[in-house]
Amino acid sequence: IKYFEENFDVYDNFEGIVFVIGLQELGLGYKKLKKDEKINVMHIAVCSLLEPYGYYSLEGYDQDGWPHYKRNEELPPLKPMEQERLMKMAIIDYMNSIWQDQD
Question: Which H or E run includes 61?
């Protein structure tokens, strides 16, 4: 959370963190996004975060540079707190992989 606070002015905001990850995965730089595009950015983040767990796999990119994912398997039925824990662990794993790549 401290990393997101210092670098993106996202303060303990789960949705904000997921959105920033989606923007990172999209990799298009600054662009004004429409509401539906913002939702798609969140979807990209979720797919990217859950890809290492085998739930999604990247199929490729469209002509506009947007990634497209294929669902490999359904998520198990999880209670809201379990969903949040899974996503938080996925965020931690994602950030660890980025920091390891920078070393």
Answer: strand 56-61
Distance CA 37, CA 42 (A): 9
∠ CA 23-26-32, nearest 5°, is 60
Provide CB contacts within 8 A for 30, sequence distance 6+. Answer: none
Residue 5, pLDDT score: 67
What's the rounded Cα separation, in Å, for the pair 66 and 76? Answer: 27
Q: Write the pLDDT tens digit of every residue in 54-84.
A: 999 999 999 988 999 999 999 889 999 999 8
Question: Are the C-beta atoms of 26 and 66 separated by less than 8 Å?
Answer: yes
**What whole-number distance in Å separates Cα of residue 76 and Cα of residue 41?**
23
